[in-house]
């Protein structure tokens, strides 16, 4: 439909009909009994004399039959005949689930991430979905915060590339929302990942320099990739709730970023302006949110109950409402809903290539898991070995992370299934070994748990341990499948203690006492503190939540059919006391002096080192990679010139393998004190055993710019050190360059 036709539609709408387009409700408001997933407080909305058939959009109707029936009935009963738009949390999978975003970031393979998002969009498109509330790109430096699982981790370069890849994957590279695409919604604007003390929904407070330098770039990258929607954040930013923050949403997002798409709140966030003490009541909240540029009110009655009276009382300019409604109509038009309200549902070629999903899911599992330890080449396992696979994740299908409500659990490959496919089943023996945790009372399951509740019943721990010990005694080697329940992370999943549950530590110690090699495979949504158990493992593979087919990839690595290549997109602290800890830390006037740990007056702790257990970028392989011969084509360069830094990488191992070459920059002198190093580029590279390849990274002036204390993007002439490294603490290969 042409723009002027949309204007005509807008002009034909009554004020009630316009306001209705700015309201989003869940499925049961349209059709009794619709299967829905509450993702927030399901308080009764208190809709007053409201016509449901004015509503513009529906949230989390994930059953295609329900969706079709709702659209059908809606179009029959609504006067204006503008179709409903359906939006859902299809974060990293619809029915087929890929690894959680933090795991995907550990691939450092942004092409793969884009391919994954494309497959997710295709599957959801055929189910009639129009918009996904993804990608979440909130940068996170605090693993106590549960939603770290949903984020691309602690780094700006990774976050911006992840954002771009996901938006292009969901929407199609040209962003034209062609067939099999979804409109993407980047979230949560802004800086939701930096709550005080890592506590969910906590206040966020930082300088504009920090906001612009570290936390905004990933949202900006999504906007520059033509993302169709942005979602507000629950948190306050420097005292002002993001959802009512005019500077953040109009000055920054609309004017500076140039975002012209639909701006939707997070779940009930407008109403929460009252709770924040920023709005007097719902009516005040409605005015504040509309003036701050919020288009759609998700799941409250604030807009529906108050916008009309505000306009009629002359307290709200109707053009703000018209602009918001026009953006909603344009989104529906971009999706072709006026021509076909059943987009995707009736697409003739809706058979999906299952094989492609499996292949991608396995590849994702192989590339996102991170090998953290492998003493004496314990891994890969020999085909002849008698293996005891022990632990609460040995046969557990709940390995898709919290944000996978519509997962098809029947297709999920457990570690047991994955291993039986690659090892001789007669050489495998399984036992649950331990509970995940001994008390679920504070986990606060929402109704997402559905048919999984049986998995979260506490069993007789002693019996589990004894059974495991009896079985492990028969084996040559023990694989321990441990971790966190997937509801210990995700929204509402903040924790003060991110060590492994003590019941599982008990299992580990019991297995260790048998004197056989112990390999850990850990399933979790966050970096855990492993300082108390790392020495008990001979090898440790960090599986995150690998999704539907990821365990096939894990099993391939255990069997040596695949070579681990994941690298950490987030620092692993030794203990909670070090948090926040991240690789691009800021300098101190008294840097620690390694030669004299007892010297008191330096930037250090008395009871712990400054170093993490595993640094950002770290990841082992079954091969070894030697870096040498670092070079640059310019030791001096002007702002208009590109410089190229190269390094020779040799695979000195016996297996072909992939690794991630990381290019870091250290800025010696600047207008503000700069981080010790910053990641500027990565290159994933495959190298045959014994071969050497030269890897080059091209850097432009943009890689040397930063926001100064005024929030202005600047650069300085002077000296820089460039590192080509295997992780953030690898400083062996460096070269000096000078910007003149
Ligand atoms: C939730 C989440 C948000 C999600 C939304 C809709 O509270 O914060 O990420 O997209 O509500 O379910």
What fraction of the residues are assigned to beta strands by DSSP?
15-25%
Q: Please compute the radius of gyration using only Cα atoms.
A: 26 Å
Task: Give the helix level as a range of percent.
Answer: 25-40%
- Helix run count: 18
Principal-axis shape: globular
Q: Strand pairing plus helix content: what structural class? A: alpha/beta
Q: Strands of the biggest beta sheet: in what spatial order? A: 9-6-5-4-3-2-1-10
Mean pLDDT: 96
Distance between the termini: 53 Å
**Poorly predicted spans:** none
Cofactors, ions and other ligands in the entry: alpha-D-glucopyranose
Strand count, sense and barrel status of the largest sheet are: 8 strands, parallel
How is this structure best summarized?
The chain is an alpha/beta fold. It has 18 helices and 26 strands. The chain binds alpha-D-glucopyranose (GLC).
Written account of the structure:
This protein is 26% helix and 17% strand. It has 18 helices and 26 strands. An 8-stranded parallel sheet has the order 9-6-5-4-3-2-1-10. It has a 6-stranded mixed sheet with strand order 11-16-15-14-12-13, sandwiched between helices. It has a 5-stranded mixed sheet with strand order 18-26-25-20-21, with no helix packed on it. Strand 2, helix 3 (64-77) and strand 3 form a beta-alpha-beta unit. The N and C termini lie far apart (53 Å). Bound molecules: alpha-D-glucopyranose (GLC). Residues 39-40, 89, 133, 187, 266-267, 491 line the site of alpha-D-glucopyranose.
């Amino acid at each position: 439909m042409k723009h002027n036709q949309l204007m005509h539609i807008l002009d034909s709408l009554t004020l009630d009909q316009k306001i209705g387009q700015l309201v989003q409700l869940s499925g049961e408001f349209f059709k009794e009994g619709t299967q829905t997933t509450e993702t927030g407080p399901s308080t009764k909305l208190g809709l007053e004399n409201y016509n449901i058939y004015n509503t513009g959009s529906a949230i989390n109707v994930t059953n295609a039959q329900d969706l079709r029936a709702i659209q059908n009935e809606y179009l029959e009963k609504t006067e204006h005949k503008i179709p409903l738009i359906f939006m859902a949390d299809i974060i990293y999978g619809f029915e087929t689930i890929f690894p959680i975003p933090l795991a995907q970031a550990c691939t450092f393979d942004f092409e793969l991430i884009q391919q994954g998002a494309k497959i997710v969009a295709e599957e959801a498109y055929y189910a009639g979905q129009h918009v996904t509330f993804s990608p979440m790109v909130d940068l996170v430096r605090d693993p106590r915060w549960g939603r770290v699982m949903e984020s691309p981790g602690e780094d700006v370069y990774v976050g911006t590339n992840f954002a771009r890849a996901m938006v292009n994957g969901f929407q199609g590279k040209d962003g034209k929302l062609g067939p099999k695409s979804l409109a993407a919604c980047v979230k949560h604007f802004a800086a939701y990942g930096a709550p005080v003390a890592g506590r969910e929904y906590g206040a966020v407070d930082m300088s504009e320099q920090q906001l612009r330098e570290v936390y905004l770039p990933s949202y900006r990258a999504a906007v520059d990739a033509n993302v169709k929607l942005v979602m507000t954040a629950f948190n306050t930013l420097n005292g002002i709730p993001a959802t009512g923050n005019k500077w953040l949403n109009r000055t920054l997002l609309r004017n500076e970023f140039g975002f012209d798409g639909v701006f939707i709140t997070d779940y009930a966030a407008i109403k929460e302006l009252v709770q924040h003490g920023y709005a007097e009541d719902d009516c005040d909240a409605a005015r504040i949110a509309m003036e701050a540029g919020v288009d759609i009110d998700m799941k409250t009655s604030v807009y529906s109950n108050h916008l009309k009276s505000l306009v009629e009382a002359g307290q709200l300019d109707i053009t703000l409402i018209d602009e918001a409604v026009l953006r909603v109509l344009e989104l529906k038009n971009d999706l072709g809903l006026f021509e076909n309200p059943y987009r995707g549902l009736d697409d003739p070629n809706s058979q999906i290539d299952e094989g492609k999903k499996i292949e991608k899911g396995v590849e994702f599992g192989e590339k996102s898991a991170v090998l953290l330890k492998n003493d004496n080449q314990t891994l890969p396992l020999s085909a002849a070995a008698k293996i005891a696979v022990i632990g609460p994740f040995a046969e557990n299908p709940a390995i898709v992370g919290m944000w996978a409500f519509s997962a098809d659990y029947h297709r999920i490959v457990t570690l047991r299934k994955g291993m039986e496919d690659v090892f001789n089943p007669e050489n495998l023996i399984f036992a649950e070994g331990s509970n995940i945790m001994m008390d679920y009372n504070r986990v606060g399951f929402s109704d997402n748990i559905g048919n999984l509740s049986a998995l979260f019943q506490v069993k007789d721990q002693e019996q589990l341990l004894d059974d495991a010990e009896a079985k492990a005694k028969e084996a040559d080697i023990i694989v321990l499948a441990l971790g966190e329940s997937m509801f210990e992370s995700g929204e509402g999943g903040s924790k003060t203690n991110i060590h492994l549950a003590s019941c599982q530590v008990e299992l580990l110690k019991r297995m260790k006492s048998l004197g056989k090699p112990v390999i850990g495979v850990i399933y979790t949504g966050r970096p855990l503190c492993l300082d108390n158990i790392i020495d008990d493992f001979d090898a440790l593979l960090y599986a995150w939540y690998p999704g539907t087919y990821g365990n096939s990839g894990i099993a391939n690595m255990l069997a040596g059919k695949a070579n681990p290549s994941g690298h950490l997109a987030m620092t692993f602290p030794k203990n909670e006391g070090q948090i926040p800890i991240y690789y691009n830390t800021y300098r101190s006037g008294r840097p620690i002096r390694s030669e004299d740990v007892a010297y008191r007056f330096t930037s250090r702790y008395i009871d712990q080192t400054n170093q993490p257990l595993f640094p950002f970028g770290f990841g082992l392989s079954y091969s070894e990679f030697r870096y040498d011969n670092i070079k640059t084509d310019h030791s001096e360069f002007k702002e208009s010139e590109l410089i190229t830094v190269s390094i020779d990488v040799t695979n000195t191992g016996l297996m072909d393998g992939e690794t991630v070459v990381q290019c870091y920059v250290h800025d010696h002198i600047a207008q503000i004190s700069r981080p010790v190093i910053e990641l500027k580029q990565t290159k994933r590279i495959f190298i045959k055993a014994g071969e050497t390849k030269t890897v080059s990274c091209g850097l432009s002036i943009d890689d040397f710019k930063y926001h100064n204390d005024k929030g202005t993007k600047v650069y300085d002439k002077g000296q820089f050190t460039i590192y080509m490294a295997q992780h953030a603490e690898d400083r062996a290969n460096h070269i000096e360059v000078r910007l003149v």
